Records
---
Amino acid sequence: MGWYPLQDVSNSKPLFLTIYATILVGIFFSSFYVFSAIYSGKPADFNTWLTLSPSSSLSNVVSSHRDQAPNVSTPTAVEPAPYPPSKQTRPIWEVPHHGTKMPPHKSFRLTKTLVQQRVKDNVIIVTFGNYAFMDFILTWVKHLTDLGLSNLLVGAMDTKLLEALFWRGIPVFDMGSHMSTIDVGWGSPTFHKMGREKVILIDAILPFGYELLMCDTDMVWLKNPLPYFARFPGADVLTSSDQVVPTVVDDSLDVWQQVGAAYNIGIFHWRPTRAAKKLAKEWREMLLADDKIWDQNGFNEIVRRQLGPSVDDGSGLAYAFDGNLKLGILPATIFCSGHTFFVQGMYQQLRLEPYAVHTTFQYAGTEGKRHRLREAMVFYDPPEYYDSPGGFLSFKPAIPKSLLLDGEHTIESHFYLVNYQIKQIRSALAIASLLNRTLVMPPLWCRLDRLWFPHPGVLVGSMTRQPFLCPLDHVFEVNIMLKELPEEEFGHGINIREYSFLENPSLPKQVKESWLDVQLCQGGSQDCNVSNSTTPSGVLRFPKNSKEEMFKSAFSSFKDVKVIQFSTIQDAFAGFTDKTREERFRNRVKRYVGIWCCVENHSPGHVYYDMYWDEKPSWKPVPPQSPHDDHPPW
């Protein structure tokens, strides 16, 4: 009916027809311009995701809309188009245009169309998690995009993560899990629920016809793995493992006959073959039928149902599962576990380039995983992490050669070495607390490995060198060190940083250039007085065995200095003046140390570290002799 007036005018005089047509054309182009202005805004500048803190709140910009999405195991038959389609294909890290509203959650449902928009060379790389792992997910994505890979998707198990990733410019889909946003903890019922979601996800994606590289969020990619997987086109599944004894010394697949450790499902590659789909379906059905089965145990049980023979003489693949599935085991030397990377350093010793590291074999929960990645300088933190209020305190550890290298590697020699370092760290923690500075932990040396079970010191057949630079969580309870404790009982918190912190390329210029070196001297000797002045070379000479008040007085003039580094911490601190402060400090740091595990032929076999071992003349590194004795030394 809107066009009837035009028909009437067509019978009128030419002048009126011309005027009317001109008006209509003007309206058309004006409308086109308005709609173009609304929907074609200039993309926001987002050159680096580090300009946004992973912990920053998005509550002020996200919509309160909460559409419920179905479980990923049952994708809808009629696929809803992503909203709008271009949102899923825009460059990663490109944030939505200014004025964009949060799309309805149903537009983030897992569909073939959604996955297809991110696929490249028929491969999709996927991880998933809840909001508690936001910073791990950002790190995971950053490593992939730095490697030139954009064919990735992140599954969000809660609404908060879904919205946060959308606003960060990360391709995301809704897993429909409606999970808690907090860290669930390894081994908890919710942890096992997450494992089931992984299996459901694999079973949902494989029918789309794409190769799937499924990853846990607590791993990072260090090298593009896709060319490696392409070397084994016959493989239905390529999986990582917990193997700690090398079976190869190059970049071949691990020798499947020699891999006795569990296959680890934190990194594995699936092709959409009939055999792989059958495996995913049966694995899913197994876990849904019995909620007591851990997903990884279920995978190992079903895959090893039939194992062997080799597919051929050269590929390294073996028949598994039902005798038709072709399985390959990724080499633990370069697809590294937390042991082969952080403890053994296999790739370094064999002069190989690692593809990935997965933070397994660690002892401090999520905080321990994060700290290990930070020690290796492969975790991405926001800028404020590298410029802490109050500045930093560091020191050069002093370890006698005899403690490090002489004699046999025994429980006694291990504890002598570690205790020597613990005492220095205790002094540094005290000074950091007095000066309200963040302590940069020193590198930590160990003679013996730490595990969950009895062993002779290091694993037989492994490449663990003695002594070795051990992760902080081998000795210290990193999760406790980073936990907020009640001040009335434990005093002020003491922030820490990883030993590699001051060498991290992300350390800003204003921190690198604001530095004070402190050298200890004998009190009463020449130029060794409590003073705020430095030597001509910029060094502060400070008396040994100084107490609380002397530290406060001497360093009060250096509050604006970003880094204070002691040439040694031995004999630096003589004690607190404020006894209440001392008591709270002791209560805190006693809980900072953990256990070594485990002595053979003794139950229990663990030995407790003691922050104040030197105050107990009869202290010896022995396991508890009875259940009554089995408790931390506090």
---
Amino acid sequence: MPESTLSSSSPDMNCSSVSYVHSINEAGRLLPSASRWNSIEIDYNAFPKSSIEYDSLPSPYSKSVEFNLVITDKTHLKRFVYISIFLVLAILSLVLLLHFLAPKHGHHGSSKNLTLAINQALTFFEAQKSGHFPKNSSVSFRGDSGLQDGNSSSHDLVGGFYDSGNNIKFSFPTAYTITLLSWTVIEYHQKYADIGELEHVKDIIKWGSDYLLKLFVLPINATSSSTDTNLYSQVGSTTSDRFNDVNCWQRPEDMSYSRPVSICNSTASDLAGEIVAALSAASLVFGEDKAYSGELIKGAEKLFELATAVDPSAQGTYTMSDACGGQARQFYNSSGFEDELVWAETWLFFATGNTTYLGSVTQKWTSAETEEIPSEKWIFDWNNKITANAVLLTRLRFFHDMGYPYAAALQPSTTRTDLLMCSYLSEHIFNKTPGGLILLRPDDGKPLQFAATASFLSKLYSDYLDLLQRQGGSCSSHNYTLEMLRHFSMSQVDYILGDNPMKMSYVVGFGESYPVHVHHRSSSIPWDGHQYSCEDGDKWLYSEQPNPNTLLGAMVGGPDQHDKFLDDRKKPWFTEPSISSNAGLVAALIALHNPPCESSDFSCVRSGIDKMGIFTNIR
């Protein structure tokens, strides 16, 4: 493009009323020209004169000024040039150094080592394994146990996980645990891989999913009723004989008392639904293993078919039946079943791509929400899945347009999710302890399990919004930002890991101060080659000494509403861990763990989550 300059035809510009100009670049500035032959003549006397003395005002335009520079000392010039170059290079070096030395695993302001915390939290599941104990386990105080489980019902129920500090195996929270851990791998498998924990968490999931496949026996032939399905809800007892899994303080390796089995049929809709969800989610984790993934899906679809073939009036919770869940009521009493059935169909849809399941989810959504009891509102745990299901369906709405009629039908889940996020951030919906721990179920004790899943869902949802390049969301008249969600999420994990008034980490083995009198049989009894009876066990239960075996990674129940915590083995509401609680902890930790950033990866802030992997089977 032709440039332009403004020039005077004589050395005395101020005395001349005529100048010569020609156009310049995009800025359109007029500068003096040295030649009248490539210029346009402008007679300034042709314009009206103004009474204002413009010479007294500063010009907004740049002016050309001619300087006569004379170099008298080339040595000084060279020195000036060298120093200038050095300063520029030094500044550039400093910028690059700060960039490369920035923390590769930032944690949204947390000073905690989340990589270590994840490894420890996963290790807890190793200590909970039942059956033939792996020889390569990092847990040194465990061995083979429960090898006769299921014999009383002539069905192999060896394997799975002991639920908590006792030696009972509860099917309902086990299935929930596998569903949640699988979800974290589906979303954050790259993060797990980056810190070397992917195979570790997958091994834990498979240990659980292998056991879940044993928990149901389908009818022998097609003419059999769907209620002929056997579902095993529990191994171990709270009432049988003189000694049982509750009143006997004994390592699982030493168990000598009877371990009866609780049996249900397919009317236990919640139990069936959670097992279906777990198998479906796990099938996505093991998608590369076509044979095993196929086995999981086949079992999930068949069990769901039988569970939903039951007369709706006969459907219910597993704890409604004494034979099925009578003994589980004091531990895992289920308040409803429709949320589990919707949860199951959601995961079946992701696992198979069959839109029939999604259609059913949208039709049953309102009913499932209505079933939710007030005390469960906004909770995600082994009992209530509707909260997390809303987040999961919102993910589908955000990243995989299903078109008519699903798009409109999924809107309520997004509305609920926004309300969920606002409930976490609001000062009026949930109280917090003076130290900042959210109290989602203040009357039930063991608050950390609920805070952990809230941390997970808030961080996960912020990642979804980040992928959409949104800065936040809103509910009613309130707005929230990604930073607000992430701050809340991190604050709960920081509290759990030691930033609390007790200055104590509630994850065993993490930090300098943590519970040492954990309510846990294996951890509290020495691994010394001796077999201890139930009578012997009381010595260890009531001992004032710290547990001889460190239950690495176990998240205990946590403090009371006033941040007070008693490290007392005899008070399980403070010091007992469980597999379902630790699943929530793992979920929160991996969600908050930032992926390592390559120096050239400017999109690293949004990496670490697999945006489309969950839709692999959806066409």
---
Amino acid sequence: MATSVAGDGYSGLNGVIPEPHTKKMTDLPAELLEHILCFPVLTHVDICNISCSCKRLHDVCHGRGKVWGHQYKLRWPRLQKYYRQNECCDWLREYRTRHVVGIQIRRTVESISKRFFTEVVLGDSFAEIESLGAPEHFCEDELLFILNSDKRKSLTLKYYAKKILYFLRQQNILRSLKTFLEQPPEQQSALEGAVLVDQYCNPLADVTLDSISAQLDEITDKVKKMLRIKNPSHPSLRIAQGDCFVVEDFELQRQVVGALNSVLYEQLQYKGNEFDYYNPLNSYIHQVLLRRTGIPISLSVVYMTLARRLGVQLEPVNFPNHFLQRWCQKPTGSEDIYDFVYIDAFGKGKQLTAKECEYLIGHQVTADYYSAISTTEVLLRMVGNLLNIGKRGEGNEKSYQLLRDSLDLYLTINPDNVQYLLLQARLYFHLGIWPEKVLDILQHIQALDPSQHGAVGYLVQHTLEHIQHKKHPVEPEVKRRSAAEHLEVQYSVGLIMKHKRSGYNCVIYGWDPKCTMSQEWITTMRVNQLSSGANQPFYNVLVQDGTCRYAAQENLEPHSAPLEIGHPEVGRYFSEFSDTHYVANEELQTRYPEDMVETLGTVRELYHRPAPSTGNQDQGPAAEHNSHQATPM
């Protein structure tokens, strides 16, 4: 049975056929329109155009509505943690702010490369980011967006974005450390302080107090499981997370310590790192838990924290050359050093008497060294270890960074230490960074210790000269391959090479027609033993192992199978990896204006040469063998 429809053989009362009623999109309910406009293929530009088409759609796309909220969350998903669920927010305003911040950050990062290409360490370039006055989480999100873009492209942009993100996160961590130090001593946790030190030295790593605590909770549960086997009624089994409960009975305390040693050193195989003692990773709490090894102080922080969670109070002891913990054996507390057992977390939890502690270091010490110390003193000892590692470094950027970071931390905790203030001023002066800050540090040193006027005066004079020099920058040296003195240079920047003798892979980022190093370096490196000696082109190369080297032309050859070079400084010189070579960025091309053409020509000849055709299929393998022999590599 058919149903009659308007316009299908139907006439009105006056005999006139009515016009069919046409439904428009804007007649749909607002909820359905919002659902349609949240379709993933629509961009913010589409939404802007749609909202301008009529009042109905403009009202549906209002700033606090679902449509702009969806656009915001779709484009910047990492920012969702900064908003409460179902929070009523002006999403259009947030979108505009975040979009503008993104443009400003990108422009600033792009400009840094031109201005700081010749700087060994970026110094005062980050003030511009802070001066934008933008929300910090917006700045960080844009920098992460740059870093997570196409792996092989925008290498220079990523290089500086990473350095800026490093700086911004460190500033936040320093603020958290200052807040931590303002707390009463009894509320300061050695674990929280150690995590802040770890975060400051590794600001790009995902290290949080919650994640570290969760890992320690897992170890605590393992210890409780072992305790339950030995003593099902042990009071430590009833301690919930966050409870401040102390086990008073010494026999019950011994059961906790015994179970802790068994789990930590036998079951989980934690140990002191005797073979790589001066590796800074031994001082970072997240690395100690990951690698299950460390030095006395970092293992002691882990040990003390676990013991406290199980109701046993241990105190940190600043013993020379070997950090320890002490465990009081008297019920009322005592300061007699012989009333304590000293626990060596580095030595698998071995328990020592006061006399046995001296055997660890090979000489006697006064009773003061057996005293308990505060959390602040624990942090100073921990940071002091990192400082010493930085001073022992090889003078590369990595060791300088560790030295800068540890000095920042130490002087945040103890801002009036003249020795380290002077070291910081000398370091900044040596690196040629923050000259104005150097003058401030020197003024502070002079106020604290007038006897330092000789060292202070010398640094003030040369820092003022440096400030004047920066006002008149020197034009970069330009090296053209076509110049007569450069005709012997065979290779060009961006080519991926292999060292014939050492076998390392590298990429060229600079060259000299002759060796420009000192006679002492030439003698030390036995350059005169080469067939052409120092009288041949030498190349600056970034090596796969993270080092920078100066290699003779006769020792280098193009790599037979080009690969990416995992060096932290690649982005400083190159903008892109293009399968067979690196593309020099604008700053490097300015210094070597004819090299990119040469690089492309070399790449075409080496890697894109068409395979030779053969008339007889049976001769294929032989022809392939001959073609390999003909390859100039």
---
Amino acid sequence: MASASKQVTPSCCSSHDASPPIPREAAAPPSNAVVSASTTGIPIMVRAQSRHPLESLCPAEISVAVATVRAAGATPEVRDGMRFAEVVLLEPDKHVVALADAYFFPPFQPSLLPRTKGGHMIPSKLPPRRARLVVYNKMSNETSTWIVELSEVHAATRGGHHRGKVISSQNIHDVQPSMDAVEYAECEAVVKDFPPFRESMKKRGIEDMDLVMVDAWCVGYHSEADAPSKRLAKPLIFCRTESDCPMENGYARPVEGIYILVDMQNMVVIEFEDRKLVPLPPADPLRNYTSAETRGGVDRSDLKPLKIVQAEGPSFRVDGYFVEWQKWNFRVGFTPKEGLVVYSIAYDDGSRGRRPVAHRLSFVEMVVPYGDPNDPHYRKNAFDAGEDGLGKNAHSLRKGCDCSGYVKYFDAHFTNFTGGVETIENCVCLHEEDHGLLWKHQDWRTGFAEVRRSRRLTVSFLCTVANYEYGFFWHFYQDGKIEAEVKLTGILSLGAVQPGEVRKYGTVIAPGLYAPVHQHFFVARMDMAVDCKPGEAYNQVVEVDVKVEDPGENNVHSNAFYAEERLLRTELEAMRDCNAVSARHWIVRNTRTVNRTGQLTGYKLVPGSNCLPLAGSEAKFLRRAAFLKHNLWVTQYSPDEMFPGGEFPNQNPRVGEGLATWVQKNRSLEETDIVLWYVFGITHVPRLEDWPVMPVEHIGFKLMPHGFFNCSPAVDVPPSACESKAKEDDVKDNGLMAKL
């Protein structure tokens, strides 16, 4: 379910920064760049090369794209019926990004481009930016996609109407786009005003509709009745106990036995049945999670302040959306569906220059299937990215709560359903964290030790999807490691039980309340580029399993084991699962670059804890989520293969759309542009300690250098000031005498 807590801000192309400015020597703009300004408050589209090709659309660009498409509507009825499910940057070809990074934007490195005869061709400008729109027509129940070219036109020069140029449009049949917060709010109002529903709530002792919460859930696809010929939702109902307590946990009183089907196109209830009168759970005195007296409790009084101070400022530098830190550099982006996107990840490796690791990293889908076969829980299998949008449900973050230390924030801009521009301020957080020990060794003969503290750079965002919260993090380390982490918190999705009743498929967590078992699955899409300059496609993937040597003359002591590698040659070969017993991992290698020992350079994917779906092969949700059947998929890069269940999983009737279909091409992976799709999940058997709000669960994986460097890249991290002082004192006290 989408969140409606957004702020509308003026259309401008500036990036909001809630923290003090980070000093950096300004780079001179290209000679042909024009800095646009507005003295009248009218949005001005800036020249194409004044915004990086990967920079997310700014409010003015979104407004232009929406106005352009709306003006292209054939009739007033078509224009009035347009609803804008998504307006995003159409990401350009990788060679355009290479040109931008070489000549127009940081890192300003022509060496990124492959060498050509006669030297590099220096372009005078970059191609205009383009937007891609997904438009739902509320009048006709049709979905279309549009490509709009954005160019520099002053709003006042066209009678106040600033339009781009429609490059293409296409009707997409038999699909439903993602739901929107506006629709969810309308659905709640329609259900609460429906007379049979009010009568059913009255039977349960509820006449005040202000107490009622209606969470509209997408219907998924279980039969032809869920076909996308209609835009449908099946709401779940909850009821608070106190109308004068807005912070009360309303999810503590689920209303069971009422079946509702809503036509979201026409906003009418089309099916209603009060199937079973299940008494409302009693008000749980432990249901609330707010502070102290507001929840009827007492907070701890012995927790002292812990302040993170960076007196000299941060070690990172930010230029627009380009970030540099401890030899790492990358770009920050954001989309309504994925949320945070990290682009152009590279490591500055001294004399070896800027070495790419990946072109694009993001979380592209998540699925939450529930394990209770009873109604309504069997149909809970939300596709939170494809049906709702992780980015659209993101939060404005608060310093000291969501992020600590010296924080750089980035805003996120997107369209609402009616085409207006909305901004989530402080949506993406960038900050440094102390991460304990980096490395240490103590010489037992002398007693002297070398030790270094670890620091990591974290870029993250958080979102709320109905009752659950998810935090998505990318951590960059000084030893060349990248870690992807998801933090799960929020409130359990509950059901009601009769007094004394026990449910096999869940945990009773309070009188009258039980939490069904369920799983959370996440899909990380990693467009890799290990040691590949733009235009190069020299990556491959090998699977590594640790094997025990067979008994015999090579293993006379029965202690031998070794790492065995297998090249994944094709896409069908590369549908793989984790294996903790063999310490299985995968290495993305450059086929033409070696380290000082002659080994191919690479980065390895190291799984964390993981699982597979605990469902039968005929489970309905697996029709749309066939990608959950394996932990790893590897594909050859294709720009239109972005989402593992296809672009439109909402009410999708097609079996195995997305990854499971793409890999049937069985393209070669022996030396190509590699995309990793890592599927990782957690099985949640609820505990009483998960109530009333769940302490954070952590899940993720790592990308670690494997032969990428000639030695540890963290050996040059300097000692901390306190360590240097302690060492000096130790030398004075001990006189460098050996301790034997």
